[in-house]
Amino acid sequence: MIAGTETTATELSGMTYHLLKNPARMARLTKEIRTAFSSLEDINLVNIAQLEYLNAVIEEGLRIYPPVSVGLPRSVPEGGAKVGGMWLPGGTVVSLAQYAAYHSERNFKDPDSFVPERWMPEGQKEYGSDDARAFVPFLHGPRNCLGRNLAYHEMRLVLTSVLLNFDLELADDTVWTDQNVYLLWDKKPLMIKLTAVGK
Ligand code: HEM
């Protein structure tokens, strides 16, 4: 239950906050959604997956605010192994700290900026040097996230449904991302004013 709900909800909150702090990008996403669909009945899991900007926003949301931001421990198998170019003895505990990797200039240009375009062909001139190999929000290997595909469907569906029907506005100027993390983020309330479209 925790794996499937807290992570997806966290990411949806984070993406919404970053979109609200970047009004031009919120406007672009809203336009993409409202051009593609005129009512909830038009939406299905296949056609929302075609929305290019929505997909880029989700990737960028997972990069700038990864739900599992700490490093989950893995132990080096018996006999040792080479990890990141270094030989480590069996039993050594290793991990990848996701937040640190995604906010390092060694992997991503302008790491603290919310730039969905970096995941699109149009952004490659400026962000082509980003090292997407460092980006594994669902981790890697046979025990990585079981719900990855469902999570993408859920995030697309929820964000599309909300932005199709409501205009969003931050209700206060709290720096929402100023949070502690204990495996998952200790989220504060994200206060948003919603206005029904056309009202
Ligand atoms: C944005 C949403 C999500 C993110 C970022 C995420 C991320 C992760 C991460 C990092 C792991 C640990 C993988 C590892 O140790 O290698 C994990 C495991 C897992 N996740 Fe997710 N997750 C998300 C959504 C979901 C959803 C929607 C479900 C199910 C409905 C789910 C079910 C699971 C399960 C069952 C595991 C344990 C897998 C195993 O140990 O074999 N997750 N997830």
From TrEMBL:
Binding site for heme: C145
Heme listed as a keyword: yes
UniProt-listed InterPro entries: Cyt_P450, Cyt_P450_E_grp-I, Cyt_P450_sf, Cytochrome_P450_monoxygenase
Top-rank taxon, per record: Eukaryota
Keywords, in A-Z order: Heme, Iron, Metal-binding
Cofactor list: heme
Pfam families for this protein: p450 (PF00067)
GO molecular function, one term: heme binding
Family (UniProt): Belongs to the cytochrome P450 family.
Protein name: Cytochrome P450
